Amino acid sequence: MSASIIIGEDRRGSPVRVDIEELLATRLLVQGNSGSGKSHLLRRLLEESAPLVQQVVIDPEGDFVTLSEPFGHIVVDGADYGTAEITRLAARIRQHRASVILALDGLEIEAQMRCAATFLNALFDAPREQWYPALVVVDEAQMFAPAAAGDVTDEVRRLSLSAMTNLMCRGRKRGLAGVIATQRLAKLAKNVAAEASNFLMGRTFLDIDMQRAADLLGMERRQAEEIRDLDRGHFLGLGPAISRRSVSVKIGGVRTKARSIGSGLMPLPESSGDELHAILHAAPTAEELAAEGAPIPHFLSEPKPSDVLISEIANFALAPLAGSEEESDDELGPDLFKIAAVKAPPAVPPAEAIVIMSEIMSDMVEEPGCTFQPLSSLFQDYTVRCRMKRIGAHVGDVTQFRRRFAMAVAGIMDPTDPQWAELLALSTRVPDDLLAPFLVMARAALDGAPCPDDEALAVAYGTRSPGRIRRLLEHLEKNELIVVKNDYAGRRAIGIPHLGVTTAAV
């Protein structure tokens, strides 16, 4: 499966792609004045990459919550939760790799900055085993990383700026790839903007912003006027994830729309002044009186308890890859491409899902060098394969995957098979990182097969150090999980005392 997406077309009509894997390592900065199509660009990027990578959106205007229905993003309304709940939700989001939109439109600017900082810090502070790749999109980034003091307190500004700096400067090693969008580069803190290696620059008019954009794109000062002349929805792109040379991009269409009202003209009412006066001062209707007691409309009809959101996060699955094609209308005009409609994946019975997962595991362990790959990379590969088979809801967490993968390395593809029940019960006493070589030895003993040599155990363990295998055997023997026997000819056999079986001596 390709890790690149099409975001638009260049002047010749050729598609312009963004390499998502490269983007995760190099980050993205988007600039454009209000009305330049900046939010539309972010929406296109999010929609096209939804099946490929976890997404976290910091949404100060609540424009991106419409992604939740077709793509399954979980909406967290920042106005409904306190600091402790936001921290806990962010930790669960990191753990379960849920794609989430943090909607902040119900808060004042200072509360937005504080909530976003708390949320980003919790994502950043996740334990090492949860450093999964994720796109962290921050719209109106100049609000959260201002270049100068504004109307908020210094304490809130420092808190928010620190969180944004961590995201852009240190987030890559934790799997967090910042995608920040701003109306003006001059208003965005330089140490935050400077960490991006990819740029998409839209229309802007102020000289200082044009000059900074031209410098980032490697353009000469006299070419900066080109940025002023860009049409709405057109951007100049540069960076390792986009193009090695500056390229003009017309952003493609989208499947969802923002909740904000468009800026087009509408016919004025034809009523006379007297008629309008009578309408405005008329007695309230029954519907108006009933509406006065109704809650304020929101994308979420009412605040969800945090435990309900945590349950949704735990059961999250990335959006499926599109299956059928249809034209889409968008706010910038006709779409450039035929884009696929997202359909909910059919439910797969658990018994059938187990068979499919066994096949996926079998394919993975047959790939050379698979045991030497980082656990996070293996888990990401596994989840993508499961989503392709429409069983993303059955994936489980990384701890379950680690033990299941160790079983697959030992040739145990169906852990529900009764013949493995006693062995798997014993394996609960074995640390997760030692499980694969232990199961390889135990499987050989159950089959009466020759004792695995140090090289076979090293491959199962994912190491090239003979010393580690010696220490591994000593540790398992010390904990009475195995017994190592060496005969007078120097041949080795390994017994599993709890199962009463022994490998053949080799």
From TrEMBL:
Residues 24-214 form the AAA+ ATPase domain. Pfam families: DUF87. SMART domains: AAA. InterPro entries: AAA+_ATPase (IPR003593), ATPase_Atu1862_pred (IPR014588), HerA-like (IPR008571), HerA_central (IPR002789), P-loop_NTPase (IPR027417). This is DUF87 domain-containing protein. It comes from Novosphingobium ovatum.
